[in-house]
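[#protein-structures] MJ: dropping Cyclic nucleotide-binding domain-containing protein here for a structure pass
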Amino acid sequence: MSTTPTPTMLRALPGGHRERLMRLAREVSFPQGTRLFEEGARADRFWIIRSGRVELDMHVPGRRAAVIENLGHDELVGWSWLFAPYVWHLGAEATTPVRAYEFDAVAVRSMCQDDPALGNAVSQWVGQVLAHRLRASRTRLLDLYAPYGADAGI
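AK: finished. C-alpha coordinates for Cyclic nucleotide-binding domain-containing protein:
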Protein backbone atom coordinates (compact mmCIF):
# COMPACT_ATOMS: atom_id res chain seq x y z
CA MET A 1 0.00 0.00 0.00
CA SER A 2 1.01 3.65 -0.07
CA THR A 3 4.27 4.61 1.61
CA THR A 4 3.23 8.22 2.25
CA PRO A 5 1.46 8.73 5.56
CA THR A 6 -2.20 9.65 5.63
CA PRO A 7 -2.55 13.37 6.39
CA THR A 8 -3.71 13.75 9.99
CA MET A 9 -5.80 16.60 11.34
CA LEU A 10 -2.86 17.57 13.57
CA ARG A 11 -0.52 18.01 10.58
CA ALA A 12 -3.09 19.40 8.15
CA LEU A 13 -5.03 22.02 10.13
CA PRO A 14 -3.65 25.17 11.76
CA GLY A 15 -3.99 25.20 15.56
CA GLY A 16 -6.94 27.59 15.71
CA HIS A 17 -8.94 25.58 13.19
CA ARG A 18 -8.14 22.33 15.01
CA GLU A 19 -9.32 23.82 18.28
CA ARG A 20 -12.60 25.04 16.78
CA LEU A 21 -13.26 21.66 15.19
CA MET A 22 -12.42 19.80 18.41
CA ARG A 23 -15.12 21.78 20.26
CA LEU A 24 -17.61 19.72 18.23
CA ALA A 25 -15.96 16.39 19.10
CA ARG A 26 -17.66 13.76 21.20
CA GLU A 27 -15.69 10.87 22.71
CA VAL A 28 -16.99 7.44 21.65
CA SER A 29 -15.83 3.84 21.80
CA PHE A 30 -16.57 0.75 19.73
CA PRO A 31 -15.97 -2.89 20.60
CA GLN A 32 -13.97 -5.06 18.23
CA GLY A 33 -16.13 -6.22 15.32
CA THR A 34 -18.42 -3.16 15.29
CA ARG A 35 -19.36 -1.93 11.81
CA LEU A 36 -19.01 1.85 11.87
CA PHE A 37 -20.72 2.21 8.51
CA GLU A 38 -21.69 0.34 5.37
CA GLU A 39 -21.00 1.29 1.78
CA GLY A 40 -24.05 3.12 0.38
CA ALA A 41 -25.47 4.20 3.76
CA ARG A 42 -25.95 7.85 4.77
CA ALA A 43 -22.68 9.57 5.78
CA ASP A 44 -23.68 11.80 8.67
CA ARG A 45 -20.56 11.72 10.87
CA PHE A 46 -16.84 11.01 10.91
CA TRP A 47 -14.20 9.99 13.44
CA ILE A 48 -10.60 10.63 14.42
CA ILE A 49 -9.14 7.49 16.00
CA ARG A 50 -7.65 7.95 19.46
CA SER A 51 -6.71 4.29 19.95
CA GLY A 52 -7.37 1.00 18.19
CA ARG A 53 -7.63 -0.03 14.54
CA VAL A 54 -10.33 0.37 11.89
CA GLU A 55 -10.38 -1.53 8.61
CA LEU A 56 -11.80 0.10 5.46
CA ASP A 57 -13.35 -2.30 2.99
CA MET A 58 -14.97 -2.20 -0.42
CA HIS A 59 -17.77 -4.40 -1.72
CA VAL A 60 -16.62 -6.53 -4.65
CA PRO A 61 -19.49 -8.35 -6.42
CA GLY A 62 -19.21 -12.11 -6.17
CA ARG A 63 -16.35 -11.94 -3.68
CA ARG A 64 -15.64 -11.09 -0.08
CA ALA A 65 -15.28 -7.42 0.72
CA ALA A 66 -11.75 -6.26 -0.14
CA VAL A 67 -9.84 -4.66 2.71
CA ILE A 68 -8.51 -1.38 1.35
CA GLU A 69 -6.67 0.11 4.29
CA ASN A 70 -6.09 -0.25 8.03
CA LEU A 71 -6.33 2.95 10.05
CA GLY A 72 -4.95 3.77 13.47
CA HIS A 73 -4.09 6.58 15.88
CA ASP A 74 -4.97 10.13 14.71
CA GLU A 75 -6.34 8.96 11.36
CA LEU A 76 -9.60 10.15 9.81
CA VAL A 77 -12.35 7.55 9.43
CA GLY A 78 -14.79 8.73 6.78
CA TRP A 79 -14.62 11.41 4.12
CA SER A 80 -17.96 10.92 2.35
CA TRP A 81 -19.71 13.24 4.85
CA LEU A 82 -18.12 16.25 3.13
CA PHE A 83 -19.32 15.60 -0.42
CA ALA A 84 -22.93 15.40 -1.64
CA PRO A 85 -24.86 13.12 -1.82
CA TYR A 86 -23.31 12.22 1.60
CA VAL A 87 -23.26 8.43 1.27
CA TRP A 88 -20.41 6.14 2.28
CA HIS A 89 -18.20 4.94 -0.57
CA LEU A 90 -16.53 2.27 1.58
CA GLY A 91 -17.38 0.26 4.67
CA ALA A 92 -15.54 0.36 8.01
CA GLU A 93 -15.13 -2.08 10.88
CA ALA A 94 -13.31 -1.88 14.21
CA THR A 95 -10.71 -4.67 14.19
CA THR A 96 -9.74 -3.93 17.79
CA PRO A 97 -11.54 -1.99 20.51
CA VAL A 98 -11.57 1.63 19.29
CA ARG A 99 -11.74 4.95 21.09
CA ALA A 100 -12.36 7.93 18.85
CA TYR A 101 -13.55 11.48 18.57
CA GLU A 102 -16.85 11.59 16.69
CA PHE A 103 -18.01 14.64 14.73
CA ASP A 104 -21.50 15.46 13.47
CA ALA A 105 -21.17 16.11 9.73
CA VAL A 106 -23.96 18.70 9.50
CA ALA A 107 -22.43 20.75 12.35
CA VAL A 108 -18.96 20.63 10.78
CA ARG A 109 -20.24 21.55 7.31
CA SER A 110 -22.17 24.46 8.83
CA MET A 111 -19.07 25.66 10.71
CA CYS A 112 -17.05 25.41 7.49
CA GLN A 113 -19.67 27.37 5.55
CA ASP A 114 -19.68 30.13 8.20
CA ASP A 115 -15.86 30.36 8.21
CA PRO A 116 -14.44 30.03 4.67
CA ALA A 117 -10.83 29.79 5.93
CA LEU A 118 -11.78 26.85 8.15
CA GLY A 119 -13.83 25.35 5.33
CA ASN A 120 -10.88 25.60 2.95
CA ALA A 121 -8.51 24.02 5.49
CA VAL A 122 -10.92 21.14 6.21
CA SER A 123 -11.56 20.60 2.49
CA GLN A 124 -7.82 20.51 1.78
CA TRP A 125 -7.23 18.03 4.60
CA VAL A 126 -10.09 15.72 3.62
CA GLY A 127 -9.10 16.03 -0.06
CA GLN A 128 -5.56 14.90 0.80
CA VAL A 129 -6.96 11.95 2.76
CA LEU A 130 -9.28 11.10 -0.15
CA ALA A 131 -6.40 11.17 -2.65
CA HIS A 132 -4.37 8.91 -0.35
CA ARG A 133 -7.28 6.47 0.02
CA LEU A 134 -7.89 6.35 -3.74
CA ARG A 135 -4.23 5.46 -4.35
CA ALA A 136 -4.39 2.82 -1.60
CA SER A 137 -7.63 1.40 -3.04
CA ARG A 138 -6.22 1.13 -6.53
CA THR A 139 -3.02 -0.53 -5.31
CA ARG A 140 -4.88 -2.96 -3.06
CA LEU A 141 -7.42 -3.96 -5.72
CA LEU A 142 -4.64 -4.51 -8.25
CA ASP A 143 -2.79 -6.64 -5.68
CA LEU A 144 -5.92 -8.70 -5.03
CA TYR A 145 -7.52 -9.06 -8.44
CA ALA A 146 -5.17 -8.24 -11.31
CA PRO A 147 -3.73 -11.25 -13.13
CA TYR A 148 -0.02 -11.80 -12.52
CA GLY A 149 1.96 -9.93 -15.13
CA ALA A 150 -0.98 -7.68 -16.02
CA ASP A 151 1.25 -4.62 -15.83
CA ALA A 152 3.95 -6.16 -18.03
CA GLY A 153 2.59 -4.40 -21.11
CA ILE A 154 2.24 -1.00 -19.47
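MJ: nice. The chain has one domain: 9-145.
AK: one more thing. The two ends are 20 Å apart (CA to CA).
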